[in-house]
Amino acid sequence: MTEKTSKFSTVLLTPQQVLNVWPSIEADVDKALSHGIDEMSVFDLFKDAINGTVFVWITLDRDNRIVCTTTLRFLAHKNVKTCQIITNTTNGVPLKQVEVDHRLFEDFAKKNGCSHMQVWGRKGWQRRLQTLSSRQGNKYKTQYYVFDMEI
């Protein structure tokens, strides 16, 4: 799957392409994961991408420089299948492109049987997500907060 706008193109990488591109995106993905609680290492994410259970998307500018990396995975629950955005490294990409990419991710999720999109992230994501809506006009809603305590 690919989405092109006048300034950017966003593509889903095959596992082989992930192998080739990983040295260029690893640091940004690792930085995005550092905001979590170590539930997934950058190496774990890499292995899952090579095995086809994590999907790596890159956005390229006109000069074919990687300006955004997004990782997704599917979460299958008893009654619902969700597409979770694990990381999104935007490196100065305009918000409008993030909206275009989100539509692409939504289409990918629906094509793969998902009925929901999810983002587990830090509070700052609330500002970014409030401008997004699905093709049906649905907005992201805060369903619950996840709190964690190290013991």
Specify Rg, calculated over alpha carbons. 15 Å
Strand content: 15-25%
- Helix percentage range: 25-40%
Widest sheet, order of strands: 1-2-3-4-5-6
Overall morphology:
globular
Written account of the structure:
The chain has 4 helices and 6 strands. Strands 1-2-3-4-5-6 form a 6-stranded mixed beta sheet, sandwiched between helices. The chain is 33% helix and 25% strand. The radius of gyration is 15 Å and the shape is globular. It has 151 residues and is an alpha+beta fold. The protein has helices spanning 15-33, 42-50, 95-111, 125-129, and strands spanning 2-4, 9-12, 55-60, 66-76, 81-89, 116-119.
Structure described in brief:
By secondary structure, this protein is α+β, with helices and mostly antiparallel strands. The protein contains four helices and six strands, in the order ββααβββαβα. A hairpin with a 4-residue loop joins strand 4 (66-76) and strand 5.
Overview features:
151 residues; six-stranded mixed sheet; 4 helices
Question: Which helices and strands appear, and what pairs or packs with what?
Answer:
Layout: E1 2-4, E2 9-12, H1 15-33, H2 42-50, E3 55-60, E4 66-76, E5 81-89, H3 95-111, E6 116-119, H4 125-129
Parallel strand pairs: 5-6
Antiparallel strand pairs: 1-2, 2-3, 3-4, 4-5
